[in-house]
Each structure stands twice: as C-alpha cells, then as structure tokens.
Design goal:
Elements lengths: L11 E4 L7 H10 L16 H15 L2 E9 L2 E5 L12 E4 L7 E4 H9 L2 E5 L7 H7 L8 H5 L3 E6 L23 E7 L10 H7 L3 H4 L10 E2 L18 H21 L4 E4 L15 H19 L8 E5 L15 H11 L8 E4 L3 H10 L4 E7 L16 H8 L2 H5 L13 E4 L14 E2 L2 H11 L2
Parallel strand pairs: 6-14, 8-13, 9-15, 10-11, 10-13, 11-12
Antiparallel strand pairs: 1-12, 2-3, 4-5, 6-7, 7-8
C-alpha cells in the first residue's frame, strides 16, 4: 500500500514508511511520487547524436577539447586532450552550458575546482589484490582483462556532480546564486557482467559453475573464444547457465554494503539508486537474468535491514526503475520494477530506512531532492575499465554514457580532466566485514583470422 491515497501520475510505492518518524523525509517521498512523468520516448531514448555533439562543442569551446587521432584509452574509447584545464584558468571565470544564453546552466571555475576536489574512491580491502596501486592503475583505464576487471565491482568512486539536464534533454537553467547543485553526488560503480565479454571473463568463471558448457571454447586453452575482439558466444541450443548462488549473493551484498557505507561517510541523506547490471549484463542470453535481478533486489533489502540503524546520515533510499518493456499488444511485461516491488512486499520489509520505488527518471528525482535541501547521491552504472563515461562519443549510449552527456561528470570524474582521479590520497580501503574475497585466475585468447572459419563451423553445430 502506498503512503498516499492521491492518484499517482506513474507507478511508485513506498515501503517502510511506518517505521519512519522523520516528517520532512516522508513529505519529500510523497512529493517525489507526484513529479512530472518521465519522457521515455524523448531524444535521450535514441542515439543521442545531438547531445553528444553538444557536449563535444561545449568542451571544445570552453577548454579546447580535441580527440587525439588514432589514440584510444581502451578499445573503442577515443582519447582526448584539452588546451586548457580547469586548474589553469581564472577561478572567477563563469562558464555556461551548453553555451552563453539566458537559460544556460551557469557555473564558475571555482565551483568546478571544488567539485573536482571532492573526488573520493572507496574500496573493499577484503578483496584480494585491492590496493592503492591497483586502484590507480585501473582508474587510468589500464585494468587488464579478468582479475583487474573483477575487482572493480568492489570499488566506489564518488564526487559532487551537478546535473545539467534531465533525460528529456532540456537544459536546467541555473544562476550562480543557486546552491542545489552542490548537494548532488555521483556514485560510479561497476556491476557484475554476464553479457560474456573478454574484459569481464572473471565474472563468467567466478559465478557460473558450468561456463565451459555454456560458451564456445578454444580447444587449445579451454577458455571461451572471443568474437569481434570482445564477445563470448553461447553454444546454440546449449544448456542454461548454472549460478554459484552463494558467491553471487555474497558479492551483491558486499557491493551494496560498500556503496551505502561510502555514501553515508560522504554525508549523503537520500540515496538514489537504479539497476546495476540488470539489463543487457544480467545474462538473458544464458537464461539467468531473472534470478540475477531477484538476487540484486534481495541484496539491497538485506543490507538496509541489517545495516540501516548504523548509518549516520542516510535517511531514505529511492530506487529509480523506469518501466520500458512492453509486449507486442502494448501490455506491460514483468520488469525490474516488479522484481524490486515484489521483493520488498513479500519480505514484509521492516528496515528502519524508508524505500521509494518509482517508474521515473533518476535525474528528475535527484534534482527534486536537491532542490528540497537534501544531500543526494545518484548511481552511475559504470564499466569495469574504470574510465568515466566510457563510450560517450560513440552515438548509441547506455546509461553511463548518457550520464556523461547530462552531468558535469566528465569534468569531475574523468582521469584525463581531473587530476584528483589519479591522486592516491583520495583512495580509501574500507573493512566491511566478512571473509577475504578470492579472485579468479584467468587468461583469454582472441580469435585469430585463421581460427574464424573453424569457430564459425563450431557455432553452427
């Protein structure tokens, strides 16, 4: 049952409101149920070419941005440089996004520097091999396939990061006197990747017990073949993947515990989360996506019930889970929203922190929360390469890339722009309890031109 009887403009549900005695928080959650609905078919639902060009031109006009020909940070991710960096410019310079106009988002260089200085990294020190040195390497985009990538799911990057426009692609007009942007923090975290990709082979080997039967293998190494330089391919009509459920549950709980602890340490009062690894990375092609979503919902609920009373600052959780899936008849099909709603409902959630689940744009929720005077965090489902925004210039972005186009994230969390990303003094190793996490020992082999005919034959069997 919702905490309000008023008609709602979109699906939403509040859990745990009976245990919440903070009236300002409850008033906020009720207000969040009545925002303008998300524009799911707007410009940000497509390839975002205009928005990409807008960000590129803004960076060029303001900082002298240019790509470096034939140079890449990681495969498919263009490298770039600036003619002048924020720390080299006058602090009283006023910058307009996307350009100087009456409705632009105004910010000063002094503000940008403060946002850059807020950059922090928190990592689970019980994960074998995590150190300030390995973090530094990963955050330069130099993480290697397998073990390095595997560790990144136990790393949280957080900084102040204002939102420039919501997912309707309309610029948020802002005057320098407005302080709400200073209350928004971006939390960049990596999910578990079951899509079957070379960089994240560790996830396949660590969590799937029968991976040798699920994917086409290289007969020489016994490891999955890599097609198109990146992807593993499931055996046609092969078996469904079998999960090591204990490992998966433990990792998901650790991941939630780490990022909520980091948010609490950073003074966040309202945590806005969205699905991490619950779309293309959830393993639909190998038959495990629904179970992965269920375990993810269980992990958040479990941590809130077990740790909720230990938080100093966190007052509420908001799960932004837009409903996109539709059947051919137009009827809604079972979605991530339903999975989380069912988990909190069936378990009779009794945590001390209220939870709002909403079919809404996470930017819209986050901006509204900040305007209400609360310090709020927003989740960025990042890639295991550790490079902020990853493929943001590739015209076809996922959520991470869209966040690069709609926030100041490139200025504050990209290692080529903010020197604080490379400052080891900003890295903190936390003890979140539990036993040491082992990491998979893996190697991969890319399919050569000579192998391709043979692998195609195998694929057709």
């Amino acid at each position: 049952m919702s905490a309000t009887s008023q008609p709602l403009p979109y699906r939403s549900k509040i859990f745990g409101y009976q245990q919440c005695h903070n009236q300002s928080v409850m008033k906020l959650l009720l207000n969040l149920q009545h925002l303008y609905p998300m524009d799911k078919n707007g410009p940000m639902s497509d390839r975002c070419s205009r928005e990409t060009e807008q960000m590129e031109y803004f960076l060029y006009q303001t900082f002298g941005f240019r790509n470096i020909p034939e140079e890449y940070i990681v495969q498919g991710v263009k490298s770039f440089q600036l003619q002048q960096y924020p720390y080299q410019m006058r602090s009283d310079t006023v910058i307009h996004f996307p350009s100087k106009s009456s409705n632009s988002f105004r910010m000063s260089l002094n503000e940008i520097r403060k946002w850059q200085d807020s950059y922090r990294v928190y990592a689970d020190k019980s994960v074998r091999g995590i150190s300030k040195e390995t973090l530094h390497k990963a955050l330069q985009g130099k993480s290697e396939d397998g073990v390095d990538a595997f560790r990144m799911k136990f790393v949280v990057r957080i900084s102040t990061c204002p939102i420039l426009m919501e997912f309707d692609a309309k610029i948020i007009s802002r005057q320098l006197s407005e302080d709400w942007p200073h209350r928004i923090k971006l939390v960049s975290v990596t999910g578990i990747d079951f899509a079957g990709r070379k960089h994240d082979i560790g996830d396949i080997q660590y969590y799937i017990t029968n991976w040798q039967k699920v994917f086409h293998l290289d007969p020489e190494t016994g490891l999955p073949f890599i097609y198109n330089g990146r992807d593993f391919t499931p055996v046609k009509n092969g078996p469904a993947a079998k999960l090591d459920e204990e490992r998966l549950r433990d990792s998901l709980v650790r991941m939630v515990r780490l990022r909520l602890l980091a948010c609490d340490m950073e003074g966040v009062q309202i945590v806005v989360e969205t699905g991490i690894g619950l779309g293309v990375f959830s393993g639909k092609q190998i038959g495990i996506d629904q179970k992965v979503r269920q375990f993810s919902a269980q992990a958040i609920r479990k941590v809130l019930e077990e740790d909720g009373r230990t938080y100093t600052n966190i007052r509420a959780i908001v799960l932004a889970l837009p409903i996109f899936n539709r059947s051919k008849s137009g009827a809604t099909v079972f979605d991530v929203f339903d999975v989380f709603e069912n988990e909190f409902h069936r378990s009779n959630y009794n945590g001390p922190i209220p939870v709002l689940i909403a079919d809404q744009d996470m930017h819209r929720l986050t901006v509204a929360i900040a305007r209400h005077g609360f310090t709020v965090s927003e989740l960025n489902p990042a890639d295991s390469h550790g490079v902020f925004g990853e493929y943001w210039q590739n015209r076809g972005p996922a959520v991470e890339e869209k966040l690069a186009l709609t926030t100041v994230g490139l200025l504050v969390q990209h290692h080529l722009i903010n020197p604080e990303v490379s400052n080891k003094e900003n890295y903190h190793l936390l003890d979140i309890g539990g036993s040491t996490v082992s990491v998979p020992s893996v190697e991969v082999r890319t399919v050569s031109k000579e192998d391709r005919h043979a692998t195609k034959c195998c694929h057709n069997q």
